[in-house]
Please model this.
Amino acid sequence: MNRISNALRLAACLTVLAGFAGAATAAEILIVDEKSQPESLAAAPDGTLIVGSASTPFVYKIKPGTTTPVKFIDASAEGPGTFFFGQLVDGNTVWSCMLTPVAGVTPVQRHTALIGSDLATGARKLRWNLPGENSTCNDMAVGPDKALYISDTANAKIYRLAPGAQSAELWLEHRSLTGIDGLTFLNGVLYVNSVFFNNLYRIPVDASGKPGAPVEIWMDAPVKGPDGMRAAGNVLLHAENASGKIASLTINGDTAHVTVLKEGLKQPTGVEPAGNVIWIAERASGKAVSIPMPK
Model:
């Protein structure tokens, strides 16, 4: 009888723990405090979350089944005011955009770098400093060619880091990329947005891999402050930091149908599909929050 009772109690405990783990992966997670400003986040295949802070020199890791962020990258030695934007998990590598203000300069200028870290240990794999006296490494995406594409918001540029390379090369500079923020590949095609002008573009590429002039995609509903963007299935997911919305974009040629998935968020700046949920970096609340993935 005791063995049966113990087995029942064990089963009950496992059920409770499983329920807690499920809640932890589809809920709200405070990233230290409400002032942490999580600007971008990424999810590993096992459910691990990587979250960068736009107010501190830290990137945090949240393991599956927990709600406790732990420091993953500490860039406090880089200089006063250092913070992080884009985060991307690429196999066993975490790519991060690190930004450090230039002291005593008005208007504000920043030196920024692309950082590659080992997903398991946090060990540094690569550092590449973006060119120029002022740059804004903002976000990254991996293309069908396995190269990493990096947006530079301050200079209307996209850089390309070839597989195995230690430094990136300028891939595209164009006036339509002014304010470029989020970028992602959908069905092998690169899409980018402009947080300044509320626009969405497709980047055509010829047979040799050379990019052409960005082609504007007309969206059938107004968007305000398009920021982080990721692909999920056959749609684009994007965060609107100025309207508090997460929406999906269904692309048909050079038009996009906008479907609002969540409203009332506090400055959503990053979005990441992860299994049956969509994780959102809610910068103004200091939280990573999730919503169900639409079916």
Notes: Residues 2-292 form a domain with the Methylamine Dehydrogenase; Chain H fold (CATH 2.130.10.10). Confidence is low (pLDDT under 50) at residues 1-25. The helical segments are 2-24. The two ends are 46 Å apart (CA to CA).
